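Progress narrative, Year 2. Work on Cell shape-determining protein MreC from Segatella copri DSM 18205 advanced from sequence curation to structure prediction during this period.
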Amino acid sequence: MRNLLEFLAKYNHWFVFLILEVVSMVLLFQYNSYQGSAWFSSANAVTGKLYEWDANVETFFSLTKVNQELTQRNAYLEQEVQKLSDSLVSVTKDSSIYHRDQFALLRNYRLIPAKVVANSVDKPGNLMTIDKGSADGIHKDMGVISGAGVVGIVYLVAEHYAIVIPVLNTKSNISCMIQNRGYFGYLRWKGGVSDLAYLEEVPRHAHFKLGDYVVTSGYSAVFPPGVRVGRILHVFNSADGLSYRVQLRLSTDFARLRDVCVIDDAAMKERLEIMRAAQDSIETNGDNNQ
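Result:
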């Protein structure tokens, strides 16, 4: 207390100066209209700038959530466009459309938004890590998509993270079809650039043209039908000459991929479990016969 009093006594002239300055400023701006309006305008400008900075900072930190919501919404809208296109062709009685009732399954699945935290595009065995795991409802063999199209399939799951085998992996093998044509094949990546892949084993009698879209077939028990994969660029003969090898430009930009959605659908899960049970039964019976 004594030190405080000594400090105030030593610098009292400065405190008196500050008090007089404050009083003079108050009198100046309160009783002089011009100075008062100038002060009011300046204060409003400073306050407005501070509010603007605060809004910019808040917007920046909310971008992650906004991007996740947009990705999820884009994925839904992509499927809605597909369903509307299918309904339009149904009304016009175009016989090239098939299994249109399968699109009803799209109403039964939910999308779990996730963020890509690790990714590679230049290796034969590329893998992707997302920030959602078993605690978020993720399990093995779930399909992963982006707002643009197919991404890959969940391979390993931890509590809060999961590893995805993307399309850009030489072991990836996804059943696809040429949209509105009815011809099937298997999507494979052979390495090299990250925006090109191939639809293998397309029948020689298939009729299609460059620029046609390739979408998921819905027969893999992982992806619903109609999820976009890419567009046809070139057509080659297979090595044995018995089928076509179709080069695609992928819809998903894997080099810039940040936000994805994991497909959670009870019907697809049930189909996958039945397929596994059937496979196990076949292998068991085969061993017994031996």
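The two ends are 98 Å apart (CA to CA). The chain has five helices and twelve strands.
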